[in-house]
Amino acid sequence: MSGIFGIQLLSTNLEKVVPFYEQVFGWKVEKHPMGFSHFTFPSPTPPHPSGGVIMQHPMPGMPSAWLTYITVTDIAKVMLVTPSLGGQIIQLPLPSPLGGLFGTIADPTGAIIGVFQHITAQDTQSFNL
Hints:
2,3-Dihydroxybiphenyl 1,2-Dioxygenase, domain 1; eight-stranded mixed sheet; 3 helices; 8 strands; about 45% strand
């Protein structure tokens, strides 16, 4: 079963966007040592705050955008079936600092979706990571 893993803001101007979300919505934004910012915001189901990542957009010339990551149990299968169902692979799976694999696909209408698979030590060996 899949569900929402997290959200990410790909921004073209971090200096403008961080104060905006802090002041408008009261989010707490902290700089991460790996070069991105992590944010948290109040959750409707305490005690666990929700959150995500704000980072510089990795594709020059593209507009700022929100990206939702969906948790999957088999990221390889997602990459395999996406083109056959009219979608497109945007980014093949890469290791995540969160201990999993992440990739990016587009649905048949062009909407971008992030996918994330939690992995174990055994998965790491089978993916040659």
